[in-house]
Each structure stands twice: as structure tokens, then as C-alpha cells.
From TrEMBL:
Compositional bias of kind Basic and acidic residues: 182-191
Protein name as it appears in the record: Ribosomal protein L1
GO cellular component: mitochondrial large ribosomal subunit
A GO molecular-function annotation: structural constituent of ribosome
Gene3D superfamilies: 3.30.190.20, 3.40.50.790
Disordered: region residues: 171-191
CDD domains found in the cross-reference section: Ribosomal_L1
Name of a matching Pfam family: Ribosomal_L1
Keyword Ribosomal protein: yes
Keywords for the protein's UniProt record, in alphabetical order: Ribonucleoprotein, Ribosomal protein
Species, as recorded: Staphylotrichum longicolle
Family in the record: Belongs to the universal ribosomal protein uL1 family.
């Protein structure tokens, strides 16, 4: 991966570094009745810098103080629920402490938070007992899911890494030359 990054950067010479975009395309072979691909990936540097986190936890508790120290923009339980009902949602990610899970369920906020993709759940790992680890993961991570919802994973066929103006490099380890006379042995020694 590191050497591929050097090649991709070489193709980007002369372009402003702020506009470089790296893309990873994953080609899968699958049945249509399989599960939907959806997860979170954490890269060495944050992908998005506009992450604002809200934390549902007991009012006036040590958890509330901890969440505020971690940088949460909205913290609380009933006060936060009321703010959400009024349409004031200052966050784009929401986590819930396990002790407040029942209060969240009783608040009936699924119709408001669900369509926005903000409803905390065990499946998305946004209901947690460790606020610090979850907040740090959400800040440095980005979520991905399949585009059209028709590709369901069975086996990974190929992964290609490319940049905005550079070529695509296959990461599956196989060699597919554009010149039929070129063989893998030619790349192992001086030509």
C-alpha cells in the first residue's frame, strides 16, 4: 500500500495537494439475497473534519462531563430528547450510553432520527458502555455502504486503488499486463 501511494502521488505532481481524491473500488461476486454491505472504516487521518457528535447519557452524571470533555456538541437525556423533538439537531452522529437505552426507546424518536440515519443501535455500534472509545472511533472513521443495494458479498474478486488523476492499481496481487509480450519474470529483474 505504501509503495502504491508513492506511485499515485507521482502522477499527482503539479496539482494542488488539497484536491487529491483517493478511491478504493471493491468488486464483489455475490448472490442477490445476501446481506447488505455496511460498515465503518478508520483511516490513519480523519476523513471528514465536520463530525459533530451528540451523546445520550444521564443528566448531571460523570458520563455527561466525560462526553463534554470528549467534544460532544449535545449531551443529555430528556433535554436532548426535547431538543430533537423541536427539530434542533446540532450533531451529525449520535451515540447512546447503555444506561440510557431504555429512555431512548421510551422517547419514541425513531421517526425523527431514523430517516436521518442518526438512531443509535447495537448493529451500528452506537449504543455503548465506553463513550471515549466510541467517540474516538466516530471522529476518525467514515461509514460506507453499497450504492444501489443490489451487490451482496459472497467473495471479494478485486480491489482497485486509484487517485483523481492517476491510474488504478489492483491490490489482489495478480499481474494483468496491457502488453501481451510482458511477463511477470520481466518485472523481477532489469529489462
Amino acid at each position: 500500500m505504501a509503495s502504491l501511494n508513492h506511485y499515485l502521488r507521482a502522477y499527482e505532481v503539479g496539482r494542488p495537494p488539497a484536491v487529491v481524491k483517493y478511491e478504493v473500488a471493491v468488486k464483489v461476486r455475490t448472490n442477490k439475497s445476501g446481506p447488505v454491505i455496511r460498515n465503518r472504516i478508520r483511516l490513519p487521518f480523519p476523513v471528514k473534519t465536520d463530525t459533530r457528535i451528540g451523546v445520550i447519557c444521564s443528566e448531571d452524571s460523570p458520563l455527561m462531563v466525560e462526553a463534554q470533555q470528549l467534544g460532544a456538541v449535545a449531551v443529555g437525556e430528556e433535554s436532548l430528547f426535547e431538543s430533537i423533538r423541536q427539530g434542533n439537531i446540532p450533531f451529525n452522529k449520535l451515540i447512546c450510553h447503555v444506561d440510557s437505552q431504555d429512555a431512548l426507546r421510551k422517547a419514541n424518536l425513531g421517526k425523527i432520527l431514523g430517516p436521518k440515519g442518526l438512531m443509535p443501535s447495537q448493529k451500528t455500534k452506537t449504543i455503548t458502555s465506553d463513550l471515549k472509545a466510541t467517540v474516538q472511533e466516530l471522529i476518525g472513521a467514515d461509514e460506507y455502504k453499497e450504492r444501489a443495494g443490489v451487490n451482496h458479498p459472497k467473495a471479494l474478486d478485486e480491489v482497485v486503488l486509484s487517485s483523481t488523476n492517476g491510474p488504478g492499481f489492483s491490490l489482489n496481487g495478480s499481474f494483468h499486463p496491457t502488453d501481451p509480450a510482458l511477463k511477470p519474470e520481466h518485472l523481477q529483474s532489469v529489462m
